[in-house]
Amino acid sequence: MKTIFVTGGAGFIGSNFLISQFKTGCAKVINYDKLTYAANLDTLSSVDGDPNYIFIEGDICDQKLVYETLIEHQVDSVVNFAAESHVDRSIEAPDNFIQTNIVGTFKLLQAARDYRDGMKVDDAKKDRYKNFRFLHVSTDEVYGSLGDSGFFTEETPYAPNSPYA
What we know:
It comes from marine metagenome. The chain is of the alpha/beta class and about 160 residues long.
């Protein structure tokens, strides 16, 4: 059974992703969430108590705790939903957004890289090293304003309008 480390799993999108993983029955899920204003653990009541679900209250800016959690649970994949996501708050007080969305993402990436590099030197973990994945989930806000018609594609250039994006 694969182990997935989900950050921001108590948020709207993260919790829906997490629940969908349980429906497949193929994964143990570690939900790592800071429990800010956007979190709602009640949405996860259907998986609470499941032996394949573990909740850890933590901040992605805590690189040491992230790294230790990855090692302790022998994680196969990281899926990052953790973000400050309130556009108005990002304009009024961008500090938290910069800390979580930029610094936190960097620290999460660094912890995952250190963890993966540790697998590379262990012959027993070579397959897990080759198959390790890191998925970062972002927002369409990075593309700026769309206007009244049209749509964004993978080729659309970034044009953020706020610190949130």
